[in-house]
Fold this sequence. Notes:
alpha+beta
Amino acid sequence: MQVKFVPSLLLLLMAAEAHATALPALAADAAATVDAFHKALHAGDTRAAAALVADDALIFEAGGAEHDKAEYVGHHLAADAQFASGTSETIKRRSGGGVGDMAWIATESRTVGTFRGKPVDSAGTETMVLRRTADGWRIVHVHWSSAR
């Protein structure tokens, strides 16, 4: 049996694929905060980046953990801003979801540039969990992973 693809069927399949990769409204709203966090890091604005992190945030990176915002700000935030300002990230894929006042955003990316005089070319994954507050979405958990 031969199957013929007609233009309308092809458009329907393309629309279904586009819908499958689009973020639900709640997640898209939370993703704007994730993007604002990265924009602040890229600009070296650690104050703006820290403002988007909840006081009780838990950050996982490279096998280590920072157990609240104060620990993250005191240890790795400045280095993360330095890294971001010397590199550029291209989002390869993003998904997300949520319910009520909680959302998650999962991002796969490629980062290139220079950090501390060394070339960077890595694939990365990032999962952020956010909580909606009276002041907007705040990041409550981050898990970063990368590979060359």
